[in-house]
Amino acid sequence: MRSMDALIAAAAEHLAATRNAVALTGAGISIESGIPAFRGPGGLWERFDPMEIAHIDVLRRNPAMVWKVLVKDLKAVMDHAVPNDGHKGLARLEALGILRTVITQNIDGLHQMAGNTDVIEFHGSFAWQRCMQCERRVETRTVDDTVLPPRCGCGGVLRPDAVFFGEMIPPLALWRSQETTAACEVMLVVGTSAVVQPAASMPLIAKENGAVVIEINPEPTPLTGAVSDLFIPGRAGETMNRILAALESDR
Asked: Which of 93, 94, 170, 203: CA 20 to 30 A from 29?
């Protein structure tokens, strides 16, 4: 078994050798910013049945309840969330000309806030609200939620510009993810268990097309030992800091 130092050095070496890396991120990278996960131990879906509060039919039928039970609390957290070292590390990799694209299952907008410019959001974005009537988009941070549900100037109900259960993944997001993944030379998998489709298929596509898959997760996942070439156990922020330190010391 390789030591942590050896794993960090190997990851830095692979990244230093490419100008075409792609990252796939999940809830684990944003937990360090105080944003709760939806799935897994302690996740929101342990407390709520997603089909009763996060299905598009429920939103259409009773938007005030969805806002009260789900959206308002998430808004309160995300209004004050800032990127952590995991997000900042990926932004730094882009600035170094190594990382081209971030594919994320998260809806918090923290990758863009950190500085990544090409972010494919599989499940849309909670950073924006969309009017269910006129389709106008407004920043979530600017929405007044003292009266629920909040409404657009046209009178329509505002909803998160994210994918609810019962809605499709945006076709462009899926197509672009598959295209960039198939072409990448290194894929970083950060903070995701890679069990939710179609995002879970991206590391497989990368591997099948010859990419090196580097996984950063606190615990092993179905990718570990089967798809990942390197598994680095640890939190996203600390691990990214160590990889960047090794990478930049070699440059």
From this structure: 170
